[in-house]
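> example.struct
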């Protein structure tokens, strides 16, 4: 079964995780879990569409500086906020690092920065994941949306941890991770980086080359390799870092999954 993504005008990289399946034939229920780029771009029509989704909790992974530059106007009551401790993203490090990324036409700097961020995410986000799982286990705090600036790196990692905890097949997790490159296009990614520069370097990486260097499944693989090497495996990571023991994990699956025949 394929469930159409909800449309939020002005926010192309907003989508539902509904319909992703486990090996035993269960799937994520509709209307419980969404991932997104920054919702600051929502138009008045988009805000009405968001209101129709009745999002109860929002995990905004942007830094305080990013959120201040692009505040979200919900157009009504705001969902409960889930805060994270650390935000390992190039933009958080400031203009100097962004300048270095944009000044490398080969894209290697962008790739290495994002790879390093990916390796640090299990540690940076681990304890904060407990709050995310707490929300997902509380029926009054679902639906939940997860987002950052582009909705691909930080959002991609947090989403992948949730999907893995639910038992979703890796091939589907990887495919979902890479879908963001379709919606957060080269021009949009380029614009989001250039906006932080007071002066443009010369030479400067092209939009297409930056986009290619910034979208690679190797980043997500590096995050999960770090989980294995630093925490002794995914199950141990969930139990000891994310506060999700076997009993809570079973409850999570019961709450968010349904039979594919439903």
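> example.seq
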């Amino acid at each position: 079964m394929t469930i159409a993504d909800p449309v939020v005008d002005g926010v192309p990289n907003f989508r539902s995780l509904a319909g992703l399946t486990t090996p035993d034939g269960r799937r994520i229920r509709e209307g419980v879990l969404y991932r997104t780029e920054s919702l600051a771009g929502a138009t008045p029509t988009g805000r009405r569409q968001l209101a129709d989704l009745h999002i109860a909790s929002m995990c905004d992974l942007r830094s305080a500086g990013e959120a201040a530059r692009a505040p979200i106007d919900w157009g009504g009551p705001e969902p409960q906020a889930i805060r994270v401790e650390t935000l390992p993203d190039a933009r958080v490090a400031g203009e100097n690092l962004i300048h270095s990324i944009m000044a490398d036409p080969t894209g290697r700097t962008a790739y290495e920065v994002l790879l390093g961020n990916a390796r640090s995410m299990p540690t940076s986000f681990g304890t904060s994941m407990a709050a995310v799982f707490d929300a997902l286990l509380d029926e009054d705090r679902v639906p939940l949306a997860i987002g950052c600036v582009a909705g691909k790196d930080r959002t991609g990692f947090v989403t992948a941890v949730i999907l893995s905890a639910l038992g979703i097949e890796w091939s589907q997790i990887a495919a979902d991770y890479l879908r963001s490159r379709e919606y957060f296009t080269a021009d949009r990614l380029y614009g989001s980086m250039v906006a932080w520069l007071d002066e443009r370097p010369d030479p400067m990486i092209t939009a297409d080359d930056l986009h290619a260097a910034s979208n690679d499944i190797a980043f997500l693989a590096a995050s999960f390799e770090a989980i294995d090497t630093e925490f002794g495996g995914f199950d141990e990571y969930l139990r000891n870092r994310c506060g999700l023991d076997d009993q809570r994990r079973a409850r999570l699956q019961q709450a968010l999954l349904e039979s594919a025949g439903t």
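> remarks
The chain has one domain: 15-259.
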